[in-house]
Amino acid sequence: MWAKPSLRALGRELRRTYLDALPEGVLRECLSVWEREGGVTASWHPAEEGLSIDLHADGRMTAWAKTNTVGPGYHAFLVELLDRIAAQWGVRWNWDEAAAAGEGDECGYALARDAKHLQAQMAGWLHTVAGVLFEHRGAENLFLCMPIGPLPRLPGFVGSPMGIWSESRLRQIAENRDAAGAASPDFFPWWTPGFGADFWSGLARVGVWCDVAWVGPRDQNERDTLRRVLDYDRRAAALDPAHALDASLRDELHWLLDRGAEIELPHREGPGYKRLPTRHCLYGGPWSVEVPGHFIEHVLNDGNNLQYVGDRRAVYVSSLSITSADASLPPAAELLETAGRGEPADLSWTQDAIIASARWEDDPADSARHLYAAFAVDGQLLLLTISNEIGAPRDWAEAVARSVRRAE
């Protein structure tokens, strides 16, 4: 295709082909194409992991993607996109050879082009995975087809991009393949190939559950998210009113967009993971803390500190690893005493191997109340400053402090 293959050229051509394939500007504006070692990746659907194309030294290309996070419609779209690439770039995909090697399209769609069979394959996958999940029904906070990262504390059994699933419904899917087929259009954001009502409805519902912060938009990105979700819902309703969002949910989205940043807290329960308390692994682990889902994480001081900011509340985090001159680890009690600087503690507790203490301090000049908390294990110290308005109840800050955990 190119006299001198390059990732830049590959990314440019992939972007052009995607823009031709996406039928609406609201979809094209979500397209992101980036280079990585050995290839490029493109992504535009909020529930996908992206299509990746590797460029080999001899000019061959390998395309790969995971499609079950979105569904049969997305799978068919990608196969058809690869058809476009073949036609426009002058390349040939070796579907037959890949299938003979046990690779290629695991659902068989690239060769058979049978949408019903593709849907049956995806429903069978859901049936199998539901059985695996049900075997672990004693576990907490199970998620399926969700990205790795901060995840909320679930009030149900399993979370997915389209919502929360109860244990009883997962049991039905695990025990009965027909039940899995009936549930699949609710599970997969894009069940029917093509850009029909269920496609637009799936986009809106993924946005409601995964992207909307449920507070007034604090920047242009959050405003755009609200507008897109409402646009997706409008398109779904125009094609089939049965696919529209609940009217009260649509009204809440409009209400947030109209009032802007003055709405600082989610005002009611409802769909949306960012309404829920969310656990963040600090510095990638092993420390973690639970804060409201709409809080925004900032990395400060070249990554040495973290800040979580919501309405008028904030959590500021510092972590220290300490070794004595003789290479031994200072005891946790000694570290905690040093962190307290001789100030009396208002609270103290233990959690597994962690010992912790905290003290309150009001700052009238800033109208702020701070909880200074320290957590120690041998050789490790975590410091939290949890801020709220002066005079505000202390329950929230103390609950954040007591939520700190450490994975060994």
TrEMBL record:
Tree of life domain: Bacteria
Protein name: Uncharacterized protein
Organism this protein belongs to: Lysobacter gummosus
Phylogenetic placement of the source organism: Bacteria, Pseudomonadati, Pseudomonadota, Gammaproteobacteria, Lysobacterales
